[in-house]
Description:
Nuclear Transport Factor 2, Chain: A; 2 domains; 6 helices; alpha+beta
Amino acid sequence: MRLVAFALAAxxxxxxxxxxxxxxxxxxxxxxxxxxxxxxxxxxHNPFGMPxxxxxxxxxxxxxxxxxxxxxxxxxxxxxxxxxxxxxxxxQVGFFGTMRENSTPIALAARLKIxxxxxxxxxxxxxxxxxxxxxxxxxxQTGQPDAVFIETVPAGERVSxxxxxxxxxxxxxxxxxxxxxxxxxxxxxxxxxxxxxMTNNPSRPAAGLTWNPWxxxxxxxxxxxxxxxxxxxxxxxxPVVDEERQLVFGFFMYQQAGDILSVESPGHGTxxxxxxxxxxxxxxxxxxxxxxxxxxxxxxxLTLGIPYGMPNPxxxxxxxRP
Length: 322
């Protein structure tokens, strides 16, 4: 639906007028407020209650849609999980949360870009899941976000903006190389994917194996080479850096050619890749990193399989380039 064009033709207002007294910068409370307006607008099926720029780019699962289309037609209520990541310097905010789509729980990651107190970009990744593996239900079972994501880090313990990105980037380098730099990971590092704890979790089933990769820590798990079917992770985009909380939020494309069906896992013998690794595919992943002392302390992600070769609408380069 071309609701934006309709609204312009009808003279619909795009948010309150700017005044000279209103600052252009948007702090944490301001950025989180924009996310809340976005969520409320989704439930109301009405994007035009938000303060919008004249041109707004909106995507859902890497497909550019008209604002008001896609998930705007199907959201019926809020969920119970909300996690915000704010970057006043870039005017961008990231979000992980749950909602209801025609009464069914869904998990949503979003990024909003704010310029002059108006929304210019909305990027969303939605995993609808199903059954016992519904990410939204798994996330909501955890209750509230982990305290490590919402605590204010004392100034003397923080690393710089660039150091935060460099620390998070080591995770993807490790996966591509099938070998983790142990110094990149905090001793208490854990990873949660689609609501499920994927590290240091011996109770997670490891069907057909005499050993359990899910019982291992972040670095040890990568060193088993079980992720080697992902030969490249590109593009890697780090748009939201929350220095106060030492967080990095971004979107990352895991590229799988489908030609690595097994690997020799050190100390474990031959590891057969899951059936899903046997065909070409991309996995879009919205990920949040908590960096502690320059090392990765925790990772939370929402992932979704998409067609092989699909470009990211917010990335101007060619996905094939290294």
